[in-house]
Amino acid sequence: MLDEVRGLLTALQADNDQDRVISDARYPVETNPLLTGLHQHLVVWDMKQLNPLASDADLADLSDVRVNHVVNGSTAEQARVRFDDREVAMITSEVKRRKTQAVQRHIRIAEQYIEHAGAGRFPLRLVR
After folding, report:
1. Burial class for 66, CB neighbours closer than 10 Å (0-12, 13-18, 19+)
2. Half-sphere exposure of 51 (CA within 13 A, CB side)
3. Average of per-residue pLDDT across 4-29
4. Which of 8, 48, 94, 122 is the most exposed place for a label (fewest CB within 10 A)?
């Protein structure tokens, strides 16, 4: 009985070893990226190329980059309803900062992907 189990396990191990074949692809996949993230990096990069003079906050709007619009528990629209112009300005400024940081992060990551793709390694990035 022990010999039968060993025979089954040996056959299963051989199947697993066959699945771990090293790829002969010209550009093998380096990592398992989140495809939605790759797409967002590409969209932001493309928008930057099409609109080089646009601000990062405008690029975020053009690229549909999602940022949190709630600052200290309220949005700019809620502050406008309360007629608190100072709070509206503060919230608007914070949301713009968040958009700028998000776009800069996407562009930085896209540049890394492009640089490494030129060396035959995609998708690879070393830092955020």
Report:
1. exposed
2. 13
3. 73
4. 8
